[in-house]
Write a structure and sequence with these properties.
The complex is a heterodimer of chains A (about 375) and B (about 70). Chain A has about 375 residues and is of the alpha/beta class. Chain A is built from twelve helices and 13 strands. The longest helix of chain A has 23 residues. Chain B is of the alpha+beta class and about 70 residues long. The mean pLDDT of chain B is about 85. The chains are: A alpha/beta (about 375), B alpha+beta (about 70). The interface between A and B is large, with 47 and 41 residues.
């Protein structure tokens, strides 16, 4: 049997890739491989386009990479960096197919120097607030056990508010949330937050105040480290929770508030009682009450049980178990009520002063008294002896 | 206006007094009836399950305006 020789694709016509196919494959490889990452480098030739997008190169001693930053992200970054500025960028490596270029799609850009400045400012404000006693543990107030009305200071457009509403619906839907909208990052955020916190003191019947925002980069949380915001928070007259969604960094509002929550959802959990827990508590009280009065009126446990069973049978099966238990207990309580006793044909005599007449000695011959029966009362008189 | 907290505190009080066994029967009955009413009220409060969310705005003249927030 003759062996067939393997053919190697040496002829260009055998297996030819188009440029599009090649770049598409490279794009898949590069974009599939990298998650967004932080890169440090020096900005060269940053060019803001009329469209609002920025294009620049990022370089170190030996290499450089094309960068582009879309309008929305560029707007958040402030002014375009001058040539030679050293920056951190958060970017996702990508291939621009039309030009076959490898580039970095940048979503955040922070001059390395500003990190240092922000840290210095943080330490300055922290020392000042510490000196003025705003972090003192003695200042910390306890949260109310059953907060009914909460003031929420955050951006109405943010995820924080949605998260708080979700938790409140689940835990304590009889609550009322009063939301004071404030910018939480960028220009004007410090003023907006301080003003919103001052407004909290003008609201009536507030039990608690939550100030916060969802997660963000370190520089996005700057307003929560601002002196004016911290002092406004300290001046809030009700207990406060600071919920600045950032896992690792502590903001200064966290230190000033009566309680720090890691996220807005957690703040709502801490602020509001759990309705299920309260229902359990009510069950418990109902059972104890029935037990106590059951002993007093010597109504047998059996009778109580029967009343409960009747009610249970009448209940629809769709009611949740806990509601059933509570309703059953209430029914048992009703069965124990003196009104039910009257329904069975008993009557309660009361004197002119409304007191129950229990002994022979309490009835004076010739004197009037009242018989309380199931549907009202009957005037009566003791026969003269 | 009473609150759930008031209801729970009063119920605790009622139960303690009923359990103490030194209350006159008519007083005990009155306490018991109040207890039932309190239980019902507390349960209804918990069942009134419509979370109220409002935004508060300060008008130019300094007045506060409350507005229901949908969602």
């Amino acid at each position: 049997m003759a062996l067939s020789l393997p053919t190697t694709p040496i002829a260009p016509t055998d297996d030819v890739w188009s440029v599009s196919r090649l770049t598409a494959a490279a794009k898949r490889l590069v974009e599939g491989e990298f998650m967004p990452l932080w890169v440090r480098g020096e900005v060269v030739a940053c060019k803001p386009w009329p469209s609002g997008h920025w294009y620049f190169n990022l370089r170190d001693a030996t290499c450089q990479v094309r960068c582009c930053m879309w309008k929305r992200d560029a707007a958040r970054a402030g002014k375009p960096p001058a040539d030679g500025t050293e920056v951190f960028v958060l970017g996702k490596p990508a291939i621009y197919e039309a030009k076959g270029e490898f580039q970095l799609n940048v979503s955040r850009l922070i001059p390395t120097a500003s990190i240092g400045l922000a840290q210095q400012e943080f330490e300055r404000v922290k020392a000042l607030l510490h000196r003025d006693g705003l972090f003192d543990l003695a200042r910390k107030r306890a949260l109310p056990e059953f907060a009914a009305t909460l003031a929420i200071v955050t951006s109405t457009a943010g995820a924080a508010l949605r998260d708080i509403i979700t938790v409140a619906r689940r835990r304590w839907p009889c609550a009322r949330l009063l939301v004071i909208d404030a910018r939480v990052q960028g220009d004007g955020a410090v003023d907006a937050l301080a003003r919103a916190l001052a407004l909290v003191n003008r609201l009536d019947d507030i039990d608690l105040c939550i100030v916060g925002r969802g997660g963000g980069g370190r520089e996005d949380l700057a307003a929560f480290n601002a002196e004016a915001v911290c002092r406004a928070l300290a001046a809030v007259r009700v207990p406060t929770i600071s919920a600045v969604g950032h896992e690792t960094d502590i903001s200064l509002t966290d230190l000033v508030a009566d309680l720090r929550a890691p996220t807005p959802s957690a703040a709502a959990e801490l602020a509001l009682a759990d309705g299920r827990e309260v229902r359990r508590q009510l069950d418990d009280l109902a059972a104890r009450m029935a037990g106590a009065l059951g002993g007093r009126t010597r109504l047998g446990a059996e009778q109580v049980e029967r009343a409960g069973d009747r009610l249970q049978a009448a209940m629809t099966a769709t009611l949740e178990r806990r509601r059933q238990r509570l309703a059953r207990l209430s029914a048992q309580l009703d069965a124990l009520s003196p009104l039910r006793v009257l329904q069975r044909g008993y009557a309660v005599p009361t004197g002119p002063d409304g007191r129950v007449l229990k002994r022979q000695s309490e009835f004076t011959p010739g004197e009037p008294f009242t018989l309380r029966v199931v549907d009202g009362s009957v005037p009566a008189r003791v026969e003269p002896r | 206006m009473t609150t759930i907290a008031d209801d729970l505190a009063r119920l605790e009080d009622i139960v303690r007094r009923l359990e103490a066994d030194d209350v006159e029967l008519d007083a005990a009955l009155a306490l018991f009836e109040e207890g039932i009413a309190r239980l019902r009220a507390a349960r209804e409060r918990l069942a009134a399950a419509d979370l109220k969310v409002q935004t508060v705005l300060e008008e130019a003249d300094g007045e506060l305006r409350y507005q229901d927030l949908d969602g």
